[in-house]
Amino acid sequence: xxxxxxxxxxxxxxxxxxxxxxxxxxxxxxxxxxxxxxxxxxxxxxxxxxxxxxxxxxxxxxxxxxxxxxxxxxx
Length: 75
Description:
Elements: H1 3-33, H2 37-66, H3 69-72
Helix pairs in contact: 1-2
């Protein structure tokens, strides 16, 4: 696998985490709007957890984008 494949995979993983985060935020907003505050709070917590993972995935993708192809050859 070359550098470009590693970078694409890293950015794809980050995007998936961000999409999961967004879904949880939308669910929290929907439940909150309906007055279901327990469900809103649960989805907001899930969104925060997913957001932390999305941030870490974004950092990893950024780091991989900055690495020369030789550094990724062994990974």
